[in-house]
Amino acid sequence: MNKAAFFDRDGTINVDTGYLFDPDKLRFVPGTPELIRRCNEAGYLVIVVTNQSGIARGMYTEQQMHQLHKVMNRRLQAEYGAHIDAFYFCPHLPEITGECNCRKPKPGLFLRAMADFDIDPRVSLSFGDSLRDEEATHAAGIPHFQRIVHEASE
Ligand SMILES: [Mg+2]
Ligand SMILES: [Zn+2]
Asked: Which of the four CATH numbers 1.10.490.10, 3.40.50.1000, 3.10.310.10, 3.40.640.10 does domain 4-147 have?
């Protein structure tokens, strides 16, 4: 089995500017790219698990989100020698699309990734900036959660 380091996206990897999709507005949370690189070097699969209700809200398309993720990974590689192995996202919002099993604090994104990559939750790590990240992590059976604290600098 494999081990993974799961990362929330907004407020954990990128500065949370609110429904980010414009690659030109992408700024990294200080320290996180280096943390991703250390996880790469230590043999963890680095997997992003992110709620993207902006898609349900019609603020941006899946296509635009994928483009942002492409730029994010390209910049991580070029500027920090780091990389993300996979992105899992929830495009839903219960009020608009109905209930789903993937919007954190539900563990669906983690469970899907763990099945796809044969990941052992007990030796995996999870990083996030919110309580719902922590709740989803533990619901997925991953004991190790680390809060990323970033002073909003807007
Ligand atoms: Mg967040
Ligand atoms: Zn969902």
From this structure: 3.40.50.1000
Each residue of 69-113: pLDDT tens digit? 999 999 999 999 999 999 999 999 999 999 999 999 999 999 999
CB 39 within 8 A of CB 76: no
Q: How far does the centroid of ligand 2 lie from the alpha carbon of residue 60, in Å?
A: 16
Collect residues with CB below 5 Å from ion ligand 2: 90, 92, 100, 102-103
Which residues fall within 8 angstroms of residue 102, CB to CB, at 6 or more apart?
Answer: 88, 90, 92, 108, 109, 112
For the chain, residues with pLDDT lower than 50 are 154
Indicate the burial class of 3 (C-beta count within 10 angstroms; 0-12, 13-18, 19 or more).
middle
Q: Please list the residues that pair with 148 across neighbouring strands.
A: none
CA–CA distance, 113 with 1 (Å, rounded to integer): 13
What is the predicted pLDDT for the residue at 150? 80
Return d(Cα 147, Cα 154) in angstroms, integer.
Answer: 20
